[in-house]
Amino acid sequence: MDEPTATFEFIGLTFDWTTILSTLLASAIVVLVAWLLTRHLSVRPGKKQNAIEYLLDFTNNIVGGQLSKSQARTFGLYAFTLFFFIIVANEMGLLLQIKFGDVTYIKSPTADPVVTMTLAIMSLMVAHGTGVKELGFGGYIKNMLFKPYAWMLPLNIIEQLANFLTLSLRLFGNIFAGEMLLTLVANSLAWPGHFNGFWSVVALPIEMIWQGFSLFIGAIQAYVFVILTGVFIAQLSGDE
């Protein structure tokens, strides 16, 4: 089900306004919330500081379960930022969508495969870079492609491609499907083109239930993305 899009071209490339504006808004929300919660840090934390510290402890525990203590300290802030951005991006379209005409300009950025693939590439670059740093280039290649046995080279190459698809398409599929179903249910509220009492009674509770479920799924997908990032860092750095 294709939706109209607003695009522009720059240096021969085509850019989507929806993706750009939605990603910028999600990033701005993350920065604003983090700034508001950390404005007045104290040794006797208040509710705001407790909230940000709880979230930081939560993401530290995620990577702490996958990585060594030294690596968990190194990637703790990255995991926190990644989780914070993804959960905001996942939930944003469920709570806020802005349309002008037929074009939706604000929705969940992670409902666009370009965004989720970019996040996956970013995390995998961190994982591969860590592997080179920890093992050296030769050790990194051996660990990635020739373990546990050299004859598994084709399978290991396929695994690296699967890692990218696992990170990107799982996140995209869950968020896109959630928004799509909400849109279909919302449209049924006005079937066949105007307010209809019977369909509204049927569709409204379904939409509320599915929206709550989608919020839960959005949080779970952010959690899974960070876990898998930690797993890939551990695998590629030989820290399994």
TrEMBL record:
HAMAP family: ATP_synth_a_bact (MF_01393). The keyword Cell membrane applies. GO terms for biological process: proton motive force-driven plasma membrane ATP synthesis. It is found in: Cell membrane; Membrane. Its main location: membrane. This is ATP synthase subunit a. InterPro entries: ATP_syn_F0_a_bact/chloroplast, ATP_synth_F0_asu, ATP_synth_F0_asu_AS, F0_ATP_A_sf. The gene is atpB. It is a multi-pass membrane protein. GO terms for molecular function: proton-transporting ATP synthase activity, rotational mechanism. It holds the Pfam family ATP-synt_A. It comes from Leuconostoc fallax.
